[in-house]
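Input sequence (123 aa), recorded before submission:
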Amino acid sequence: MDWTGELRRRMFLDTGEGDGELTEYNCVLFPGEEHELTIQAYAPGLEELSRFVLPEVREFLGGLDALIENRDELDADLAQVIHYRGRVGLVWWSRGMNNEFVGIYRPDPAGWRFLGFGDIFED
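Predicted structure, token format:
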């Protein structure tokens, strides 16, 4: 899928939410389609979002298909990508348990390193 191309066609909206320091911005890729994906990114403002956060999101999305293909035993659908304080979380919806879980990644010189499953908003 051309995730980065679709991201370039979409605008991020300020949700009015955040953690007190960072503002939450959202956009939806391929809305209404089978591969619909919400992107949620946190930044102090639009300038920081554009200059620092979106390049990392684009880089991550460039390898997203490989991550989806290598999900091993996960019986789940990808629902959301969250960029928060330099980490990226992939939010998966479990098909069998009606539950969500988040795989967390951090940039690494060799690519994006999987840190484990957990809460993207906790350090």
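Checked by second reader. Helices lie at 3-9, 46-62, 64-69.
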